[in-house]
Amino acid sequence: MADLNRPRQSTIKRLYAECSNRCAFPKCTEPVIRGGALLGKVCHIKGAKPTAKRYDASQTDEDRHGFDNLIILCSNHYDIIDADEQTYTVERLSRMKREHEERATACSDEEAQRATNIILAGGLAVQNVVTANQSGGIAANVINVNLSNVLLDQRPWIEVIEVIAGPLTFDDEGGRLAVAIKVKSVGKTPACDVKFAGGLYLIGKDHMDVLEEQEGLCGESKNWKASGDLTLFKDRETILEASLPIPQSDMDQFNIEVPGKPRFIAPVLIGCINYASAIDNARYQTGFIYAVAEGPEPGKIHNVTVASKGSAAISFDENAPNAIAPERGDIPRGRVSLTPWLGGGFFAK
Fold first, then answer.
1. Do 145 and 163 belong to one domain?
2. Which of 109, 267, 299, 322 has the most neighbouring CB atoms within 10 Å?
3. Are residues 142 and 167 in the same domain?
4. Under 8 Å CB-to-CB from 252, ≥6 apart: which residues?
5. Are residues 266 and 288 in the same domain?
């Protein structure tokens, strides 16, 4: 598991949901968020780094950035607490947090998600964890400050770095291909709720509508309900994994026959990465299409060249990737190759 260096999105969401949109300082009524502006601050009770006040070297990263070590304060009370470490001890701040949350009224999941997006967007505008002009303490651990600092036209962007396929296995129910998609956030604002949607489409006679299939799959997946499971900040990478089925009925209907040879199938991997803006929850996608084949091994079997929509031809080119013959059995990961689809399907929108 990668080192945790900031609170998780789900932690921020829970923190807001249990604060009644108010500073945790006793009797303070200042809001955390007003309209679309972030006024409050998410702070660490025990400091997030060695130079911070109340830092505890024995804490794990999970505990340091976990729910129990975070408190929401207005700017005024943050200044008061940060200036007086002797008065505002870990025990007092923990009690303040606990009592505030016990008094809090519940908010809707939709409201909590919107607030989380605003907090995350505000944090990114100042590089997420602020240390500027501070010697430590809560100031060094703020997810800060005002949404107006975020340029609203700076949408998130997800780039697909690499797609790895395999193994491809077969049984009585059909086939199944494991895929791993390495993606990177290259935009200036976080990409929230990052998800992969994909499937395998078999090329066959009168079955060449690859781009239309992608359009339908991506259009449907764009309307998935947000879950807040995965947020990628700028320059962060992750790997999305999936296991994609090929129904036996599709293999029976859409195959390519060559006299005296096993039946071939020509799968196409259709996919898109769905993600949302941390600012306004607008939805975006990065799409791709790859022809799937068995790795090159000259002369082993006949080959299929898939050119673009509307054309598929049997080829005898011994240097081309081999078509897949299910009768030959499973294909290990190192023998499954992906070739960019010549008919398009690569986009970010």
1. no
2. 267
3. no
4. none
5. yes
**Are both 119 and 196 inside the same structural domain?**
no
209 and 136 belong to one structural domain: no
Query: Is 207 in the same domain as 301?
Result: yes
Tokens of 104: 């809090």
In total, the chain counts a number of residues equal to: 349
The answer on 210 and 64 residing in a single domain is no
Per the structure, the count of domains in the chain is 2
Give the Cβ contact number of residue 118 at 10 Å: 22
195 and 289 within one domain: yes
* CA of residue 244 relative to chain centroid, distance: 19
Residue tagged 């400091």 (tokens): 47
> How far from 84 is each of 75, 78, 89, 137, 293, CA to CA, in Å?
15, 10, 9, 10, 66
Rounded-to-integer distance, Cα 296 and Cα 298, Å: 6
- Tell me the C-alpha distance between 311 and 205, whole Å: 10
pLDDT along the chain (349 residues), means of 10: 69 88 90 76 88 90 91 87 88 94 85 78 34 34 38 71 90 93 86 90 82 89 71 88 93 80 85 85 87 63 40 41 79 86 80
Q: Please give the Cα distance from 14 to 28 (Å, whole number).
A: 20
The answer to whether residues 120 and 9 touch, using CB atoms and an 8 Å cutoff, is yes
Strand-pair partners of 273? 196, 286
Distance in angstroms (rounded) separating the CA atoms of residues 235 and 233: 6
CA 222 to chain CA mean position, Å: 14
CA 24 to chain centre: 31
| Residues in a beta bridge with 184 | 159, 237
Domain that holds residue 123: 9-149
**What token pair was written down for 18?**
């249990």
